[in-house]
Structure formats: C-alpha cells, structure tokens
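hiii so my PI (J.) wants the whole complex modelled not just the main chain, which honestly fair. so below is everything: two entries, each one labled with what it is. i double checked the lines twice but i was tired so who knows lol
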Amino acid sequence: MKSLTRLLLLLLVIAPLIAQAALEIRITQGVEGAMPVAIVPFDWDGEASEAPEDIAGIIAANLNRTGRFSPADPDDMPQRPHGADEVSYATWRDQGSEYLVVGRLQQTGRDRYSVRFQLLDVASERQLTGYSIPVERDNLRRAAHMVSDIIYERLTGDRGAFDTQVAYVSLTRRDGDLRFALQVADADGHNPKTVFSSSQPIMSPAWSPDGRRLAYVSFENRRSEIYIQDLDGGNRTRVASHEGINSAPAWSPDGRRLALTLSRGGQPDIYVLDLSDQSLNRVTQHRAIDTEPAWMPDGRSIVFTSDRAGQPQLYEVPARGGQAQRLTFEGRYNGGVTISPDGRRLAMVHGSGGRFRIGLLDRDSRLFRTLTDSGMDESPSFAPNGSMIIYATSEGGRGVLAAVSEDGRVHQRLVLEDGEVREPAWSPFLD
Amino acid sequence: MLNIPAWPQALKILVMLVAVAALGACATADRHPAGTPADQWPGATDPDARAPGTLDPDVRTRPLGRDGRPLAEALDDPDSPLSTRVIYFEFDRDTVRSEFVDVIAAHGDYLSRDRDARVRLEGHTDERGTREYNLGLGERRAQSVRRMLMLQGARGEQIQVISYGEEMPAELGSNEEAWERNRRVEIVYEGEQ
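here's the output for the full assembly
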C-alpha cells in the first residue's frame, strides 16, 4: 500500500509539470488530473437544528482551490457515512473517489464543540489518519482549515496553507468620502479584521516572517511613509519618512531588515533598512524607477522592478548592492514580483497587448507562462507552501481578490465583504 | 475639466472683499457714538476677516503681477493661464505636452515673483500597471513639472513634490476617458487645500 501511495504522490508531483507544457489549454481542461476525493457532509450533533458551520463544505472548497483535488458533489455521493464503520467502500470505488473524509461536529458545551474526522483510503479500505479537535465557536472555521491542512499534507506530502491569513487593503466610499482600511482575514477571505484605517491611501502590506507584524505604506500625513504595526498589541512605528517616496516594504527572510523604495536620492531606488539600528544601505542607484523589492528565500539577493531598459522588467541584485541582472524578457511589462518559498518560481504582473495578467517564470527552465486570463490582474502573492497565488483582479469594475493554483488550472474568487479590495499579501505559516 | 475650480480660494477672495467693504463702512461707523458691536461686522465670524482698521497683511505685502494687479488675484482669474491647475500626461510618459508649457511657465513666473507662495505638485497615474511602479511614475511627472517651474525662476523650497500613483483617481472607471483624466499632476497652492 505504501508503495502505491508513493506512486500516487509521484504522479501528483509529475502531473503539474506535464500540464505546464499545455499552456492555455489547461484552463479549458478544468481539473483533469486532480485527485478525486469525497468530503462527506459532517454529522451534526448539537442543540441547534443546523450545524453552525459546514465543516465539510469548507474543507472541500479549500482542497478544490489548490487544483490538486477534485472534491465530489454531495449530490453524487452514493452514501453519507459519518464514521469509518459506516463506509461501504465498494460503492465509493464505483463512484470514483480515491479518498474519503468522514466526520462529525459535536457540541460539547455551551460554546464548546468537537470536530472529529477520518481520512480513508478507498483502495485499501483503511484509515490514513484521524483526529478529534476540541474547539470554541469562534474557531470552528479555523478547525476546518486545520483539518484541511492535515488532509492536504497526508495526501500530497506538502504542508497545507489553509490555516493562514491574508492581509489586504479595502476601500469604501460613503457619501463621497473615501475610507482606506488595512485588513487581515483568513486565507479563504472570511473573518476580516481591520488593522488600521485612514481617509488617505494605504498601500503595500507586507508580513514579517514570524507573522506577527505588518509593514505598510500610509499617506495619513499627505505623503507616503512606511509603518510597522504589531498585530496583537497594535503597537505602531514609523520607520521611513524621507523626502519623496517611501514605499514597497519587504521583510528580509530573517525579519531583521526591510527592503524598501526611497526617492530621496532623486529617483526611486531600492534600499535596505536595518531594523535594529535604523541604518540604511542603498542597493540600487539608477536614474530609472527601481521599486517593488522582494527577497530571495536565502536572503542574499533581491528581485525588483526597473524600467532602466525603457519598460518595467524584473532584475535581481545582491542584497548588499552590486550588478543587477535582468530576469524577464517576455512582454512589455513585468513587475510586482512574488517569489515562491523554494525560490524557483517568480510570479508577477505581466502586461502585454493592453492586458495585465499574472505571469509565472520558472527560474530553472526559464519557461514563462500566464496563469490568469483577465485584463486587470495585479498584486500576486504566493501561499507560504507555494501551492497557490492570491491576487487582485477586477469584477464589474470593482476590485476583488482571487486565488489561482500554481499550475494555473483552478481559479477561485474569494468571498469577501462588500467594497473594493486590493493588494493581498499571503501570511507566512502561523504556528 | 481643465479648470479645476478652487472653491475654497474663491470663497476666501469673497471674504476678503467683504472685509474691505467693512473697512469702508467703518469710516462711517467710527462716527457713530455707540459703534457697531464687533460680532456684527460683516464676515466677523470668519477667521480670515479682520477687524476694521487692520489692513489685511496679505493684501499689503503681496507683490503685483505684470498687469499691476495683486498676484494672488491672478490665481483666481479664469482668463489667466494660472487658473489651469491640472497638467495631463500620455500613458506611461512623464514629458509635459506642448499645450501645457505656457501654463507651467505662468505658474513658474508667478512663483518667481511671489517668494512666499508655496505649491504642492501632486503626481498621479492611471490604474494600469503595478501600484508601486505607478508611485514612481507619478513622482516623475511631478518632477517634470517642478523642473519647468524652476526654469522660470521658482525656487526648490517653494515646491513640494508628492506622488499618489494610482491611489487617488480623479475619475473612476476602466476606460480611456477615465485613464486620460487620471494621468495628471495637480498644482495646489498652499492654503488652497
């Protein structure tokens, strides 16, 4: 059995590589190649007539969004078991699901619940894993994300990133007044909380590697300045307020430095600010616009946008400064890079033919392809496990957030409150 | 759309006129034994209005323009090139279009004559392209205007350059018309906003 699982895992790893060559076709192919699974609606045992959260539905949506799984529609399920002992494996073999998740949500106190689930292998008719998670009402969705992480890791070998968060900027207009808000929500867009709000623009949120702080740009003093804010206590510090532009903060992987864009030298250049002693080191010096720095995972180099060749393209420069190397050559416009956790893939805003889409560059193969198919896609941000990219797009003239699987096969809108949202930044793993 | 009406400034001028009218009135009011209670002076509730007998220092010290009128007045003359406060740009460009050269020259000339005048150049872009790059582009546009103002004799300390990138569109919408109106530098005189 173990070797079969290994083979399946191997296929899972290979399948996206094969799909990459197919380019645009992958979208019309839908989720072919994704693993068929069934997340059976959970049993509910509690006071209310209906369960407070649809745990199975949350798990199915999470798995589906990655493009690696194809969860069965509950209407197509041959039976609805809630424990391994109730499962008739033969019917599931006929139905086609390779793995089953069954479970129960039980109320154990006034505000206390227990989420119990089992992950079952249909072929071997065995349980792969199972947990019972005690949880309070407010954390039921979070428990569903944790269960999703366990299932994802067990079936793919990669760590799940469902129990993470996303920061973004929202914009609401009321009676002609603008309200900008920096918000943090669960990775699926639920439970938004306001971190900071202002009548002046807020831009470019960036997570510290420990997930406890956000750096961002605020115009509250009628000019761009960079702030760092704690997410628990709310302690807030201004870290850059030079003449000209202060923007595009990016934390170094060790969390001790902040790469940023300053134009105090006459034009926007990349600098590195040491957060322990506030010392500033200039990384680029060019009359072009150099901006949008992102650190490579080893912390040794920085990828940034520059229009030094006439149009914005991506370049890589040693974090201590030095010769910059051009990385992108496809299309007129490449900027706003996000780097996969393994450093091998760069996702960016790719502009060509008057459209802005999310592009992905594989550093080893130098293969470039577009992941999205709209015209106003921007601000891509990798999930901490590299499986998905969240980005901002436009729907009916309104800014919304969407996620795309790293192979480009699955696109999903994120459920968010009303108003306009932009500039998502996916958090690191939060433990 | 080229002429952004600066309402606060227009109101200020009105208030100033009212204050001048009050000055004229006070010549007669002074002869009144009882006088007029201060809170009944026209415009007295406005902090910009001044008590009779104290000339508005702005009016006295502001230099005169070529036409002999106070310069500050010229800022609100709809026939003056100074009334144009928004400079528009081509997509992804920061070069000033020829039709705006005279306007910017007029503002530069104004700043060179009134050394107390201060101006903010607010650079903006349309929504296309990344937000951070657009912040750089907005600044570049404002710097282009700044350079031209300084060629006319304006001093660096009179000019503040701010870029908002694409964050503060003048017009919503994802079409050529909106984009055109959002690629701009706004010239904002101190005290106007």
